[in-house]
Amino acid sequence: MAAQDVLPSRKGSSGFSALNDQRVRGVIFQVLLIVAIVSFAWWIIHNTAANLRAQGIGFGFGILRDSAGFQINQTLIDYQETSSYVRVYFVGLLNTLLVSFIGVILATIIGFIVGISRLSKNWVVAKAAYVYIEVLRNIPLLLQIFIWYFAVLRLLPAKRDAIDLGPFGLLNIAGWYAPNPVLGRGFALVAAAFIIGIVATFVLRAWARRRQMATGQIFPLFRVALALIIGLPLVAYFVAGFAFANPPFSLEYPTPGNFGPRGGLRVFPEFIGLLMALSFYTASFIAEIVRAGILAVPNGQTEASYSLGLRPGHTLRLVVIPQAMRVIIPPLTSQYLNLTKNSSLAVAIAYPDLVSVFAGTALNQTGRAVEFILITMATYLTISLVTSLFMNWYNRSVALVER
Amino acid sequence: MKKSIVPLVAGAALAVSAVSASAATLDDVKAKGSVQCGVSQGLPGFSNPDSQGNWTGLDVDTCKAIAAAIFGNADAAKFTPLSAKERFTALQSGEVDVLTRNTTWTMSRDTDLGLNFTGVNYYDGQGFMVPKDLGVSSALELSGASVCTNTGTTTELNVADYFRSHDMDYEVVAFEKADEVVAAYDAGRCDVYTTDQSGLYAQKLKLTNPDDHVILPEIISKEPLGPAVRQGDDQWFNVVKWTLFALINAEELGVTQDNVDEMKNSDNPSIKRLLGTEGSFGESIGLDKEWAVNAIKAVGNYGEMFNRNVGPDTELGIDRGLNKLWSDGGLQYAPPVR
Amino acid sequence: MSDIQSETDLVYVRDEMLSQSPPPHRESGPVGWLRKNLFSSLSNTVLTLIALYVIWIVVPPLIDFALVQAVWSGDSRDVCTTINQGGIQPNGWFGACWPYVKDYFAQFIYGRYPVEERWRVNIVFVLFVIGVVPLLVPTAPFKSINLIYMAVVFPVAALLLLTGGHMEFESMIGIGRELAPLGSGLDFWIEYALLTLVVLGIAYAWARGTGAPAGGLLKLVLTMMLALAAVIFVLSLDLGLEFVPTSIWGGLLVTLVIAITGIAASLPLGVVLALGRRSDMPIVRFACVVFIEFWRGVPLITVLFMSSVMLPLFLPEGVSFDKLLRALIGVALFSAAYMAEVIRGGLQAIPKGQYEGADAVGLAYWQKMRLIILPQALTLVIPGIVNTFIGLFKDTTLVLIIGLFDFLGQIQSSFTDPSWSTPVQATTAYFFAACVYWIFCFSMSRYSIFTENRLRTGHAR
């Protein structure tokens, strides 16, 4: 500005010279951007309203209270054909969360096993892990879902036949008929014993750690904890069983029926197929993340830990993985989110997830595309944002504090 | 309507060429030289492509008849495969000129969705197919069964209504595509496959052992299937409607693919009017005199079309049943050409 | 020293080096290798056995299915069905049905593209290979010409060949319609000329406002508008090619069209978004963050649903997009968000000194980005871009859910043909599809690793 005052400004163009100021340009540009975005949004809304009017379709979320009229096979909450679309939404959302949650756990376990195997000194194990990763992550997930559902599960016996898994129930093409836990009168006692066992373990752990810090003595925590968590409920089980003269907890087994096995806890093949495909596919990415994370820990850490006399297992568990976790967690989070979003491919094999029942069937029956898709997108967006916020918080809490 | 895919022109907002669903479909069709028909993505007997991409079936023939009536050439029929979900949007937006895709004529579709159904080329109803070794002879014995069906259609709602009204419990597995339903049923995932009965006959062919399955006698809904056009274009509506009527009238009058040329010399005034040797009925719907002759030459009369694609001698082996002419006790009835 | 030794004749001293003796038998050769790598300890042995068992239950059945039991020739479903199912194979047979794949192979590649017009698709494939191979080889010359070819010549040629050209453009704002009859083409060109004048006017005003010489800017704008006009003109030419609507495209053709267009559209969009996200202007930054996080937060399938059922509602009445184009828009916006994050990584990896250096020599923002930052950042993120492309390539399979026939969709649609319908049909087809996708994705991931290694040596100190 000062320079401008010194230089003689050109006549006639003095009104425009402000354009040379970067800040002024910035403001102009941003104002233009806002105008563009707002007018674009207005244009879209205007067109949509006009189109909906022309096609005689209303707009409003009141339709969600209407009765759905169709059935859904896997419902975690009570659902009937007469239930409203709101209930359809929650049924779908819960199914999405269920398959994502179990998928995340399975994928993490498989991913860590494969990722660590990939670095194994055992040639066969390392190569097998390598082939697993390269094959699984280079085939589209949708194709893998089809392969699991239409090819692998097809090898199971037909619906009125079943493989007897003994204590684990029956398995056939219509799903896994697992034993259904039936809770008796004394079950509250067993549950209470279980919770007490867990709480006691935590207290014990804190005490053992303090003692180890002070005296160096190691307490056999694992064995005692096992006794507390398993033993205590077991004792409670027998006590309750005698007190109420019936077992507090029993398993109901499926029985053969007219149209295949009946009773038991039914796990649908669509669920199994989707879960398998999601877990194995995501695991191949997690394995690479784990490998990269472990390789990111300097070799000196491992050597130092060996020189302190720690065995390889302990080195991995106590020294390498805790440090590797810092590198692993951010990409791991995005894999978890990917898995959740990918669970929407359920629509291809009729697993009743959110997209399938809400943005699919319900949308088709009502023809209200705008409302249903907006709600679905907003739901996934919320899940993503909440997960990222939580993970960012967690990430900050484990991050290395640098000087 | 302009022939166009919308070109991608960056920067210049004005350069988007629009497909406008203008009022005069017949003029547009004549200008581009072909009729674009929306068909299914593969339903044997109705509209099914082979490995060379040639389409065959009852709906395909209906479309060919329309093309022949306009151009005198059945090859002027072009096909766009559509899923159940997108068929109405495709018609509304002008992507196709006529929807010949085993679509059920219902009131809401005829009014709300801006469609006009031009007639019925197949009277259908929803039925059930079960494996023979299930030992079931009536749909009322199906309590506790799992049912495979298509999502996004009326069948899903019909089956829910049926089982509920008979107080039977059931489990539904609803797939997006018909092939997936067949695959799941064939593998034994479900006990029952339900869709339009014609569809059951068609899909039965794709099963590993078609003879091991039986179609139950119950019909649980009315499904009149027919071609549909956009509302607000009466001329085009008439062309499609009367092409179908011409085929039905031809059967009633005994005009076939082979004898259509000789029949022109017939003394029967009804035949004369139909085949354009008397009156000017073709001109009154914007076509030429030979419109019906060309349509019949291309695909035969309704009976021939039915027998060739779905009739008892085909792999589907469907009985004429409701689709017999009214004079034979069926429902196919066309207003006279006069 | 040595002189003394050689002179003294000591018989017990060797005068040449003894050759190395081989290591003990147990430590060398295959046995030693096995001992060291597979059976060094009990736990290691157990691991080896588990791994071998897993391989044993997976690999032999696959080979058995795909090669040993497989049928290689035949012309109907009989050869691929067992006697019980009405065919000629022994009961219990389970093998791949390759004649079915052979019969449908052309459809898997071209979809229902008319047989007599398929040479056009072949030419496009060839043109693409000619353009892309030298672009991928880092040492190949004429990179800038190559880029122009891929960015301008190839897309126009491909669009022209695949659709048949002869597109009709019509006026949008109505001025042209007043002056010339609709459909003559003239109406469009009148409006185009008007638009050119308006753009030139804005450029001139901007140049006057900033005091920069107007000539250069005007020339640039005019060249771009003329180039665009040339492209539009070429597309509207009638070359006598038959018009092929996108509704009958299919197979690998559609997969490649979606993947390549998606990546090509998302690259510039991604650059803009990444720059926007690192901008000093808060509103620009905010808008870019919202845009990126929105698309990254929702599954692609909902994006495709949106583009297939909601996009038509967004447009003015009477205007509609082609179905393929609708999917392309969805895919492009979706992958642009991912691309933006990849490119942002590259921008962040450029040392601050580069930015400051560019500022110090007085480069304006776009000059700085165009000449200094982006060339470095984009080279750095080539592996990331290739990985995004692999992801996109795999994700193209999702379009089958909205009813487009990509490679996998075309394969699924062939299941409706009763003349080949057998119990092994789906398994054979999926196996084949998996192999094809794997070959594409694996070779691309190898390329990504190759560039990564090349870049790493480049930056090693």
TrEMBL record, chain A:
It is a multi-pass membrane protein. It holds the Pfam family BPD_transp_1. GO terms for molecular function: transmembrane transporter activity. It is found in: Cell inner membrane; Cell membrane. InterPro entries: AA_ABC_transptr_permease_3TM, ArtM/GltK/GlnP/TcyL/YhdX-like, MetI-like, MetI-like_sf. Keywords: Amino-acid transport, Cell membrane, Membrane, Transmembrane, Transmembrane helix, Transport. One of its GO terms (biological process) is amino acid transport. It comes from the Bacteria. PROSITE patterns: ABC_TM1. Belongs to the binding-protein-dependent transport system permease family. HisMQ subfamily. This is General L-amino acid transport system permease protein. It comes from Afifella marina DSM 2698.
From TrEMBL, chain B:
Keywords: Signal, Transport. Residues 34-263 form the Solute-binding protein family 3/N-terminal domain. GO terms for biological process: amino acid transport. Residues 1-23 form the signal peptide. Gene3D superfamilies: Periplasmic binding protein-like II. InterPro entries: Bact_solute-bind_prot3, Solute-binding_3/MltF_N. Belongs to the bacterial solute-binding protein 3 family. This is General L-amino acid-binding protein. It comes from Afifella marina DSM 2698.
UniProtKB/TrEMBL annotation, chain C:
It is found in: Cell inner membrane; Cell membrane. Keywords: Cell membrane, Membrane, Transmembrane, Transmembrane helix, Transport. GO terms for cellular component: ATP-binding cassette (ABC) transporter complex. The chain crosses the membrane at residues 45-63, 119-140, 147-169, 189-207, 216-236, 248-276, 283-305, 325-343, 377-408, 428-449. Its main location: membrane. GO terms for molecular function: transmembrane transporter activity. It is a multi-pass membrane protein. GO terms for biological process: amino acid transport. SUPFAM superfamilies: MetI-like. Residues 252-441 form the ABC transmembrane type-1 domain. Belongs to the binding-protein-dependent transport system permease family. HisMQ subfamily. This is General L-amino acid transport system permease protein. It comes from Afifella marina DSM 2698.
